[in-house]
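Entry 14: structure prediction run for UbiA family prenyltransferase. Input pasted below.
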Amino acid sequence: MGFNVFSGNLRHIFKYRRTINSRYREENATFELLKSSILVAFSGALRIHIAFLLLHIQSSIQTCIAGSLIIYTVYTIDRALESEEDTVNRTELKGSNKKIGLAVSLLAFMIGTYILAKEGMLALAFVPLITGYLYSKGIKIGKFALKLKGGLGMKNIIVGITWGIFITGLAGSGCGNLTPIVLVFIFFGVKLFINSAIYDFRDVKGDTLAGIKTLPVSLGIQKTRNLLSAMHLLSHLALGIALIHGILAFEPLVIIYSFICGLICIQSLTVPEDEKPSSQKLERTVLVDGESASIVGLRMITGALIA
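Run finished. Output tokens:
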């Protein structure tokens, strides 16, 4: 009788510990889900600010905040919907509470759209959301089916065009000249295309498993590196010429830092994840996601020194 009571208590203790551990893993994964898009959202807000600078338009803090909330929404929803490649690429999100992620995303989207609606830019809020859904899930109406995921470089093209339109649209809504708007769109479109391709080197295993034809998967390392270098050089050459001729605001620090930082990223970070030293993960975060923060920070410092 005493042994049965003792063994029953042991089972109860182990069951309780398993429940606590399971709950802890779920809470930790949920926290990882909620914070996984904060850096990219913050970086996006600063990119919108930089777009304002290049267009020589007074930056709007409200617009930058609204843009960051929309960016956070799109990336968090994408991670909460759990695509096939994320089971390999983002194992830290396994077991997260998707409902909490979607609820927080919805709240961020509502606040962002409210701000943009007040500024007359409501339509722009839905551009990345709709594009993101068409990419991740697609739509099917009868025999008609549309899904943007899968084609060679399609992921990078969608990222570049979507966020290029979003950032330039928010900053350039009050600009009456089309030429600088197009140049700023090219700048951010190409930059975000390149950044997404750099992150594809980290996700080669998951993308290969899901059948996604990213550039590193399809072209290989060297050809992808050459393509990104050519795109980077041409886009910055165009911006440099526009800067000299006064088509864009005279912001040489933005262009020079972006040019140097981009070259370093393309040459040193286009290596598969399993071949990188752990220190390069931090380097990628600083140089890719932290580039806009570095530009804004350096510009503030130089401005204060000149003043």
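Notes: The chain has a mean pLDDT of 81. Will compare against the previous run tomorrow.
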